[in-house]
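Re: folding output
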Amino acid sequence: MNIKYPKKSLGQNFLNDKNIIDIIINSGDIKENDTILEVGPGTGNLTEKILSKNPKKIFAIEKDKFLAKKLSEKFNEKIIIINEDILKIDEKKYSDNPMIVFGNLPYNISTQILVKWIRYNNLKNIFKRFILMFQKEVAERIIAETDSKNYGRLSVLSSWKLKIEKITDVSPESFYPIPKVKSTVLLIEPKKEYFNLKNSKNLEHITNIFFNQRRKMIKKPLNILFKNVNEISKKLNININDRPQNLSSLKYFEICKEFENLNS
């Protein structure tokens, strides 16, 4: 497919490195009864490889009307093309069984897409696994551990419901056009069990308050959330002189639970 003018507004960089494509496909571990959801298929290079694994069904979400038309011409009825915005669709309606998601995500909205999926209450019933391409620095924030420089809001949100493994880094030369940043492929699986919170948006709210002031001691964000800071800190065994990056994800879940209990 000859695409001369990828759209910067849609974050279009098309993966054309066959070795990286093979690594991505192998990480997906596709079986014949699997339903696949591909986000941003672009020119269909990855789609072709997915088809070679003979899955039960392939849905391809492509926002660009021109690309959606070209993909339709290329693959005919072998795949189901959804010419919509990934942020606006309801993935639950496409399959009764958990789907495998492949995505060279548009870097300008990749975190929004991930957070959208985390918000689903029954994540493991909708998705089997994700094999996703992120800008390298975003991937590093997703998988960052407590006390590291990249640890932050996205690390906490991601670790709540997801098991995440780094597969490989990808050089800019693996794409057309060549982007200015490196990329990373992550293998992500929904956890079967995770910390029970009433609403994911509460955790988003909590982490936003803490990490917007990441250089401050946590006494300040705690004071924003609670009137009885000393009582809360003792109950959760938190040192109010710590910085936000010093708290484990579990501590943020516990803080969120206390916040929900007070506001229920």
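--- second protein (sequence, then structure) ---
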Amino acid sequence: MGFIDSLIAKLPQDLNAEVVQDDDEIEVVILEADELWSYVGSKRNQQWLWLVMHSRTRQVVAMQVGPRNKATAEKLFFKLPEPLKKKALCHTDFFNVYYETIPHRQHKPVGKESGKTSYIERLNCTLRQRCSRLVRKTLSFSKNLSFGF
């Protein structure tokens, strides 16, 4: 796990995302944001993985690990590439932190039945299927935060 931690530490903050060019004036960029939880040691020590995905390309453009609060959401959206911060429309669930973090004109809260967050929800399900430490009920939970994510 130390090797994986060193690889993650070397990743650039913006994950080299280039989904929008500065001269793209017509295209409306749609992002999907969501979070999923796991725990370290016990269920009282919850850890949240926050993700923002570009809908058209399915590229994760920002991620953050931390508690489910406004400070973590602000760190997540700070990591977005600059062109996306100005132009993107972000679909989220109705979690109140998104209302406080994303500018009103760029935020579109939607229900799961709309299908507007289906790609990020599918990614979360895939992560839970393939990464045993993200499964909700498991024997392979993380016992140490530095090895968890």
